[in-house]
Amino acid sequence: MTSVQRLTPPLADLLGELGLDPTRSGLHRLPGARSREFLCLPSHSRPQVLVPLTAGGADLVLERRSRTLPAKVLKQLVATGLRSRILPLLPVTRLRVDDPALTELISWLGGEPDSRVGILVGPPRANRKPVLRLLTAAGATTAFAKIGTTPVAAELVRREAAALELVGQAGWSSVRPPRLLRAGEWRDREVVVTSALAGDAEERQPTALPIGPTREIAATGARTDLAIGQTTVLAAGNPLAWGRWGDEIARLGDRLRTTIGDRRIPLGASHGDWTPWNMAWQDQVLEVWDWERYAEAVPQGFDVVHFAASRVRADDPAAAEARFLAELPTSLESCGVDPALADQVLALYLLSTARRYAADLTALPVAAVASRLDWVLRLLRTATDRVELGAVA
């Protein structure tokens, strides 16, 4: 067996996404330049997290979701091995990045010469963005960064930078967004760098809807002087951008525009991805990240619907969907939205979501996203029917 193994194609592709030269990296068994060595989890052929072989990498390992008992045990063993500094000395296969561009990237992100970086990537999607976690030599997280490596992802990175400029001046008392540290291009890739949050959070991924923060964001820029048909939510849009779903989405949008386009539904701001995994409670303040879909002049209640919908999988039993729909009016009311508007807010939210999923699928087909879009469209058809019936009643 040779001392250096060639990279797997997925691992080489990931390094290329980051602007690094895959030919200047390899898989090694023996320790070397540990400052630029990584564990590839869950495997070299399916890299989702590149964990630096330092004590600070333990947190990245522990934060990975594990469903089975063996996976949970292995996770604990790896984290313990990193914290004790024993694992980097063992003959475990590790990725060694010898490209000087990695040092250049860490410096661009604001790191010091001895800083480390952890790299997280999601499954293939049009909006996939590698997330980099900047660590000190001692393991403290100092910043996070997103890299937009596709046109869709690059636009979202630019939008997040603009959103953080806005929300950083909002003066919220119950919500804390990260600070924008830097935004721009590195090697023709759009990058946004933000401060770290939830370092010592009291509760990560809260299961209950955070009512106070939801209301405070929704009340930002509140207005009732604009008919919903005059907002981007019900703008006609371009059906060609929605691929094979374009005609149906356009028809459903036309029906809603005809039925409620002249209504003045209370508008406000929306985080856009209001889910438990983007939140953590600390000192009675909700720390929230991922602001790339922040929007203003959208129906109040969009975040309420998104939080509830995120807890229903497309393949869940019908009872989960029924519970989501039954509880929605009460959840909206708790956040200051008239429960009588539940059908309208739901339909408008589903229309916006269907457009986004369809556009993403047109850029890059992904089975999981297609399944979710099928679920959204089914609910949207029913919700549009209910809105039309309510308008006649």
Give an account of the 3D structure:
The protein is an alpha+beta fold and 393 residues long. Helix content is 38%, strand content 19%. It has eleven helices and 16 strands. Helix 7 runs antiparallel to helix 10. The relative contact order is 0.10.
Please specify the SSE layout and strand pairing.
Elements: E1 4-5, H1 9-17, E2 25-28, E3 37-42, E4 47-52, H2 58-62, H3 69-83, E5 94-97, H4 101-108, E6 116-120, E7 131-135, E8 141-148, H5 151-167, E9 175-176, E10 180-186, E11 189-195, E12 203-204, H6 211-218, H7 246-260, E13 267-270, E14 279-282, E15 285-288, E16 295-299, H8 302-309, H9 318-334, H10 342-363, H11 367-392
Parallel strand pairs: 9-15
Antiparallel strand pairs: 1-2, 2-5, 3-4, 3-5, 4-6, 6-7, 7-8, 8-11, 10-11, 12-14, 13-16, 14-15
Estimate the mean pLDDT confidence: 93
Q: What's the order of the H and E elements?
A: EHEEEHHEHEEEHEEEEHHEEEEHHHH
Shape: elongated
Major sheet, described briefly? 10 strands, antiparallel
Report the uncertain regions: none
Roughly how many Å apart are the termini? 76 Å
Summarize the structure.
With 393 residues, the chain is α+β, with helices and mostly antiparallel strands. It has helices at 9-17, 58-62, 69-83, 101-108, 151-167, 211-218, 246-260, 302-309, 318-334, 342-363, 367-392, and strands at residues 4-5, 25-28, 37-42, 47-52, 94-97, 116-120, 131-135, 141-148, 175-176, 180-186, 189-195, 203-204, 267-270, 279-282, 285-288, 295-299.
